[in-house]
Structure formats: C-alpha cells, structure tokens
Amino acid sequence: MAVPKGAIIGGSVILLVAIVAAVGVIVIHKGPSTSNDSASHGELRAGSKSVEAICQATDYQDVCVSSLSKAANGTTDPRELVKLSFEVASDHIREAFAQSEVLSKAAADPRTKEALETCRELMTYAIDDIKTSFDQLGGFDMTNYAKAVDELKLWLSAAATYQETCLDGFENTTGDAAGGMRRALNASMSLTDNALAIVGQLGTLLGELKLPDVFARRLLSDVEVNDFPSWVGAERRRLLSLPPSMIQPDVVVAQDGSGDFSTINAALAVAPSKSAKSFVVYVKNGVYKEKVIVFRNMTNIILVGDGATTTKITGSLNFIDGVGTFKTATFGNPHG
Q1: In angstroms, rounded to a whole number, what is the distance separating the alpha carbons of residues 250 and 139?
Q2: Number of neighbouring beta carbons within 10 Å of residue 318
Q3: DSSP class of residue 248?
Q4: What pTM does this model have?
Q5: pLDDT tens digits along 175-187
Q6: 28-37, 69-78, 258-267, 307-316: range with lowest mean pLDDT
Q7: Which of these, 97, 113, 266, 311, could form a disulfide with 107 (CB 3.0-4.6 Å)?
C-alpha cells in the first residue's frame, strides 16, 4: 500500500522535532552580526553544544563528541548530525578494512590470513548495512515510526555484529594480528554503538510525542498474520501456507536428472538479482552434499523439499580441519 504524501511530509516534520529535542539546542540569530569573527565563534560554539547534546545518550561520549565535532564543521542542523553519526562510523570501518588488508599481506599463519580475509568481507557488509540505515533515515516513514526506528536499529545492529564476528575469527591464531585488528576496530565499534544509541533516543522521543492515530496506527501489512512475522509479505505467506505439492516452482533440482538442475547451487545461479518477487526452488528427495552459496543479491529465495527426512543438504566443513567457523555453514555466502 502506498504511503500517503501527507504522512511523509508530516512525518518529516515530526522527525525533525524529535531530533531537535534529542539535540536539545536551537540556535536563533536575532540580527546581523557586528563582527565576522564573533559570528564565526558563535556558530562554532553553537555547533559544539549541538554535538555535545546529541552525544549525551551514547556510551562512548568522548569518541562521539570528538568524531562528530571534526565532521560537523560547526553545523547545528540536527538532521545532519544524526546522519554524520552514521557516516563517521562507516568511515572508521573503511579504515579498519584497509588495515585488515595490510595485516593480511603480512600474515604467515594460514588461520590468521583466513581470519583477516573474513574480516575484510564482514567490513564490506557492515558498511553496506550502515549505508542502508543512512538511506532509510532519509525516507523515514511516520505511518509506523516504531517500525521505522526498529529497522534502523536492525541494520545498525547487524553492522555491529559483523565487527564482533570479525574478531571472533582470530580464535587459535598466532601472531599479533588479532590485537592489531581489535585496535583498528575499536573506534568503529564504539561509533556504531553510538549511532545505535542516538537512534534509540529518537525512538523514545517519538514515543513521548504521543502521535495522533494517523501516525501511530499499525498497518494491516505490519500485523502478524497466521503466525508469520510482519516482514513476511502476503505473497510469501500464501506460498508458505501451501503444501509443497501445490507450490509452482521456478526451477526443480533433482539428482536423478528429472529436474532442471542436479545441484542446488546451479539452480540458485539462475535466480534474478535483488528481485522483489519470490524465486521458488523445489529440491527433490536425496542427500545433497554441497555447500550452498547464497549471494547477498539473491533476495526472496524460497527452497521447498520433500520433507526433513527425504530432502537433506549436508556440509563437511569443520573448524578442526582448519576452516574458520564463519566459513563452515552449510548455507552461506561465497566466502562464509
């Protein structure tokens, strides 16, 4: 259902009010300045107060104030300050990414080298998720502000998890690469946590505004239907409610040659990129000994089998054999 234009405009105004409340300072110029120097000094001081105010909700206030002050360049625009909290976190992750590349070239231990390569991959995911958060902030939907805030927190939390997972990969490695990577990620992890805290503060303030029903109401599509979570769309709810025999697949996988492909990976290779429509893969009975690769651009993939005891997918990658835990999943991304 399309979001009413008035809801978007009204939502932007209310979001701005909440952000201003979070920042806690509005600068009003009553007349022309008598001195360019004094005006400049006043703007810098106002900008500093704005940064300090928005950082009050964070766990790492010193890091927050220091990083935002450098990036803000004296701005008092609350919307820009919130966006900048995302940007500085992303910038520091890029720095950690570069450091992981440097450390990887110097690493002699195979496990350490693999852990560093995994970190580089995870840093890419973290940057993507922070960018998604940044983009969603620009299109904040006030028809359901609680859901909008939750989605922002979800993407930022994923970015934080990727950074933690990077460090987990250094278990049983040799050398000082783990310490070097932890030092490289120290600032970015703090800044990601700070961005989460700022978004959480926005959610609290929006709740305290006691929005009218036009903004606070829950849309039908947001309500759990037949035990499916709200993010499962109507089409997928319908598909998942049907017995396998009634689902029309896009491709069929069968080891006996009766399908379109004999492996699941071959079937996924023809899936459309970033599709909004479900792509159904029917996997006939059999034991499929393969690591199934699901790329990040493979969206809305649905796998249907003949039952838990007849269609099986097995993997044989183990940490004990020298494979990092992140890469042992039977279902995973190209490197994990």
Answers
A1: 33
A2: 10
A3: -
A4: 0.68
A5: 888 888 989 899 9
A6: 28-37
A7: 113
Residue type, position 328, single letter: T
- Residue 8: is its pLDDT beyond 70? no
Query: Mean pLDDT throughout 303-310?
Result: 90
Classify domain 43-208 at the CATH superfamily level: Invertase/pectin methylesterase inhibitor family protein (1.20.140.40)
Query: Domain locations in the chain?
Result: 43-208, 234-332
Token pair 């199934």 is found at 292
Structure tokens belonging to residue 7: 């809801």
Contact between 181 and 96 (Cβ < 8 Å): yes
Q: State how far the Cα of 51 lies from the Cα of 37, in Å rounded to an integer.
A: 21
Helix, strand or coil for residue 107?
A: coil
Integer angstrom CA distances of residue 300 from 35, 131, 277: 60, 21, 6
Mean pLDDT (whole number) for 252-281? 94
Q: Which token pair is 246?
A: 């009634």
